[in-house]
Model the fold of this input.
Amino acid sequence: MSSQDHLKETDTEARFEFKKEENSAFKSEKGLTEETIRVISEDKDEPEWMLERRLRALEQFQAMPMPTDWPEAPDLSEVDIDEIVPYIRPDIDVRGGVDDWTDLPDDIKDTFDKLGIPEAEKNALSGVGAQYESEIVYQNMQEQWEEKGVIFCDMDKAVREHEELVKEYFMTKAVPPSDNKFAALHGAIWSGGSFVYVPEDTTVEMPIQAYFRMNSEGMGQFEHTLIIAEEGSEVHYIEGCSAPKYSAFNLHSGGVEVFVGEDAHVQYSTVQNWSKNTYNLNTKRAIAEKGGRMEWISGSMGSKATMLYPSTILKGRGASDNHITIAMAGEGQDIDTGAKVYHNAPNTKSTIESKSIAKDGGRTNYRGLVHIADGAENSSTAVECDALMFDNESTSDTMPYMEINESKVDVAHEATVGKIGDEDIFYLQSRGLDDDDAKQMIVSGFIEPITEELPIEYAVELNRLVELEMEGSLG
Amino acid sequence: MSTKAIESLSEDTVRRIAEERGEPEWLLETRLDALEALETAKLPDVIQTPGRRWTDLEALDFEQLVDPLNQSDTTERAGGDDDVVVLPFTEAFDEYGELIEAQFGSVLAPDENYLTALSVALFTTGTFVYVPEGVDVEDVTVRAEMSSRSLFSQTLVVAEESSSVTILESITSADDDVDGDRYFSNLVEVVAGENANVQFGSLQNLDEETYTYALKRGVTDTYATIDWIESNFGSKLTRSDVETELAGDGSESQIVGTFFGTDDQHFDINARVWHEAEHTTADLVTRGVLDDVARSVYEGVQDVGEDAWNTSSYQRENTLMLSDDAEADASPKLIIHNHDTEASHSATVGQVDAEDLFYLESRSIDSRTARNMLVEGFFVPVLEEIAVDEFREDVTELVFERLQ
Done:
């Protein structure tokens, strides 16, 4: 486990919140106007249809209200799009990402070294994409996968090189810009992200990873991820994110679309550690065909406010979904996250497991929707939410919604909220642990059912993040 | 304004109602304030998810439904004991005027929403129940029969220190010739003093042309208990909110709900509890059955405040679907602001268990009878929570009727 040495670093500033000089080749004006979008599209040398889609999304964005009428919705009053720099192209020679870390400028290379990405690539991944500000700066995949026809490239490049596929799938079927205000915003100014295509009956054995890093103050990051897994294929995609902390707010509004073909299996794992001035407002959605299986694994540790509800549309008979969510909110954080599943075909199945921890005045909320359509007979869903609270300054909410239009179903929802058990702490203390260690151990145990689903490297990372958060509160 | 103005409604209407009933000046003022509030008040919140609104209250045509000056009901009230006061307001003002003035609207603000404001401005029936300190009565009954286009009812229960009371209310439709849609509004306020114990059971079995709005809320003082039983069988559309504010240390509340929907009935059932003091306990239990194209919407809220140390709060909701065309929506919510809490909720939706059915059939019980037995069995856990025999029998009877 020597490769995990960097994880033992206990100073979060050194780990995630270090800042680099802003060094851009192109930077848009603050705010969002038609002109900004034309400039971004031109800088990317995009085809006309993409510019048109962006402009249409902009219109929708301007027409839609903020999601303020939700019960107990996080406070987004600070999020003023006119204060955001939507597009910063880092100063690098090769557009679409180099395939050798040493070709990157020192400050960018150093950033990803500190985050441990090249190390992880060597040990555990099939491919890596790394985004800095608005564009992918590094992109590489092992040759064996390329030979099998697997595509893993940055999204901007995909628009040019895989135009027909992108044109067909990009924000047309899974996440239309009209879905919500931030999806519309995303549709207007998206930049960077990954395009993944896995051909029929191909199993990508090791995960591929994308890492998204925001470095500049006051910027918005809007990467788009499109994954197409053809019939019988299998892929595990991992994304990580972080940013240094600034006094002004940053905005992350990513868009993720996953197409799970017949009997295909896609796992999408996210470990989110945005700085505590970042608003993280994403739209992630998968459509699963007959027998397809979608898994969402999310760890939400960072950000000032997160609103994220990965959704799966179980479109084909026998499709299944599995959501695993961990949320942790400390001082000043509002982590509002959950899941959405639409059972639109017979014999579909979903399970949602959510674990959340609120402390030091933070708020966590599970907000989820399970919809079973008329005719989706023999479908089943099981939702389980457990929340742990540390103090009475914190808030822990649970708001599931169930819409059941079919009688031949098995629907169950369960939730619990509680504090760390005094008896548990006492027991551990009687075994010689101090109070802090005892609490850490209990929290690790609390989230274990979820961390054990992750590849070891990420489980270790997630545990370490939780420990860092705990030390922050207890030290 | 969130809903259409009711043109036939004016200050004059409200004054006439108050005058005919010989009400004190303060109540007229309260009614007029409520009338004014209609201009800005909104309909009660309804759950919305992307593209769907769970209950469409906006569709109610109050111009058609509300006929304020022709309200009519036959209500039998019985205290069963001389120590308890069970009277219509009109007969209670002389002796209990001050008490009523002090408590009326103390739990439910008339301008809380459009439907409460409408109800306070126009009510012509209802009951005042007063249980003096230390009095213990078990048999308060209020049986109401509605015989007009619209009926607005207002109930106030004041239970003083260390008193105990069980109140059973029932509401049905009279066999008369009012054609078309009708509207029944039922507001209930319960003030439970220190160590008081109030059990309030309600059985609604109005005909299926009636739209029903019921909002029942209680506030507990120290060590007080308020237990609700809310049974809904009738009406075309029912919006029912049963709520307890646990304001006193060591106070408790149980909210038991049952419903059985057939044809195109729509039930919007809500149970809410606010834990505001220390050592409070709440238990919310709802069971419902849906047949034909009936639809149910359930929201349960357990809200634990910052100062609610040592809270225990539980919620269970189960819906049984007998028909493929029925629909059940549910949203149990936990809002927890104090970590010294043990809280849980669960909700299920499903059909009659196939193995249970198979077992009964293998014992040569025909499938219809077997299904009915299982439905009756489904209600047992909530029936067991009902301490009053008579009430439990009434509910059982209604379940049985619907299974025929």
About this structure: Chain A has twelve helices and 25 strands. Chain A touches chain B at residues 71-72, 358, 369, 371, 374, 387, 389-419 (CB under 8 Å). The first strand of chain A starts at residue 24 and ends at 27. The radius of gyration of chain A is 21 Å.
